[in-house]
Amino acid sequence: MESRCENCIIRQFNSLRAMSKEELKHVSDSKVTKTVKKGEALFEEGDKLNGVYCVRNGISKLSKLSANGKDQIVKLATKGEVLGQRSVIAEESTNLSAIAVQDMEVCFIPKESITNTLQKNPNFTLEVLRHMAHDLKEADDVIVNISQKTVKQRIAEAFLYLKNNFGEDEQGFLALTLSREDISNVVGTATESAIRIISEFKKKGLIHTSGKKIGIKDERKLMEMVDGF
Amino acid sequence: MESRCENCIIRQFNSLRAMSKEELKHVSDSKVTKTVKKGEALFEEGDKLNGVYCVRNGISKLSKLSANGKDQIVKLATKGEVLGQRSVIAEESTNLSAIAVQDMEVCFIPKESITNTLQKNPNFTLEVLRHMAHDLKEADDVIVNISQKTVKQRIAEAFLYLKNNFGEDEQGFLALTLSREDISNVVGTATESAIRIISEFKKKGLIHTSGKKIGIKDERKLMEMVDGF
DNA sequence: GGGATTCTATGACAATTGTCAGGTTTGGAA
DNA sequence: TTCCAAACCTGACAATTGTCATAGAATCCC
Predict the structure, then answer these.
(1) Mean pLDDT rounded to a whole number for chain A
(2) Which residues lie below 8 Å from residue A138, measured CB to CB, with a gap of 6+?
(3) In this predicted model, what pLDDT tens digit does every residue of B111-169 receive, in sequence order?
């Protein structure tokens, strides 16, 4: 049995909460629920999107391929976030790829439901606008971090970010396990450099690892490192 | 004599064009025109903005101070752009400083005119949203460029960007003259590194200089350099 | 016009980061 | 279980970039 958007808790976290009952009903009737396995793509750079994806579960990386063949991860999106909005709003093909880093459950909402509501419901539009304003601010922060901090600082920051945004499991490991390559693509460095620094952090007792899994041991020192001590 | 927004050509380039006649009238009655000299700030990081600034003339850098004391320039805004929107929309203090790199003429529009229209005129909101979607896409590109390209490539790209966006003067120099420090803050590197690379470009015949002024001599080679040749 | 200040330029060096070239471990499929 | 491919790790080295020091050039201001 398909669940109804009207009852979906996820909605509370994103701009869909500003929709009226009728609008939501329309969305719910037209939406399609999909499951996406780890490693599969929701969409790829250059695709024309016919709608947006509302994340019910799991995590997706949003990345962009650079000229030298490396991906840069621009954002990690989780439960409650809506992907593909920018492309649908600007009526352009998307500039990012969305690939699952965990198994995901998403709702695909055809763009008509979105564009119609954008034109008719100012509250909804304003809500989307607020979200985008927030994303833009975050993007500015990323720019400053990448250009002004060392790789070491950026990796330390990434671990703290992962802890704060996705939490830890029972054994104290980061709940979101990224491959070393993904980590290097988040901070914008070579995979080998990332691995080296992870080893160094381990030696210094800042983190502990088990296979791919990473746990934070000395949060205070990591925070100091981010600020340049 | 103050000019009226209704007649302002600048408006055609930004989201204000989606305002109704009455809304524009209201904006025009409440706006204040200001001149800002080179080096002066429109606003600074952390300020709470009581309105937005519509640029009529001149150019402003939007920058953010990083922990190590260096500014990172995130965007150069020129005629037609509206600054401070994000802060007003999100009702947060601004995360960027806006400092004139050329003498400017701007119109300050109190936030009430904006927020009122945002709530009442979906077309206007949608127009603002489109602009912000565009800015966000550009920010993503900046992230990828900074993290995946060398300083040399980024400087080459910056020169091409300056030419394409601000043009050249009669003698073939870039119309927007930035200090070496500003250039280094655009590409996110040390001032000395920027200077060194500028010298190198000059030696190789890619550019020519006269004081601070820089002119592009071999656009093709610069473009090749950006793509990694 | 002269002095102070800021900006530009360059050298020398050190630190950071990337690349290449191996190894080892891990995880999943047959 | 066993094997294979992918992921992880490390060393050695080169390239890039940042830092410090210093000096000349341009600009501002009294």
Answers:
(1) 93
(2) A75
(3) 999 999 999 898 999 999 999 999 999 999 999 999 999 999 999 999 999 999 999 99
Neighbours of B17 (CB within 10 A): 13
pLDDT for A197-223, tens place per residue? 999 999 999 999 999 999 999 999 999
Question: Which of A118, A134, A144, A191 should we substitute to test contact with B (largest number of B Cβ atoms within 10 Å)?
Answer: A144
Which two tokens mark B215? 């002119």
Confidence of residue A1 (pLDDT cuts 50, 70, 90): very low
Chains A and B form CB pairs within 8 A to the count of 146
Neighbours of B147 (CB within 10 A): 24
Scan residues 4-63 of A and list those with Cβ closer than 8 Å to B: none
Indicate if the pLDDT at residue A11 is higher than 90.
Answer: no
Q: How confident is the model at residue A67 (pLDDT cuts 50, 70, 90)?
A: confident
Q: Looking at the complex, does the CB of residue B93 fall below 8 Å from at least one CB of chain A?
A: no
In a mutagenesis test of the A interface, which of B64, B140, B224 is the best target, namely the one with the most A β-carbons within 10 Å?
B140
Bases of chain C with protein Cβ within 7 A: 7-12, 16-21, 26-27
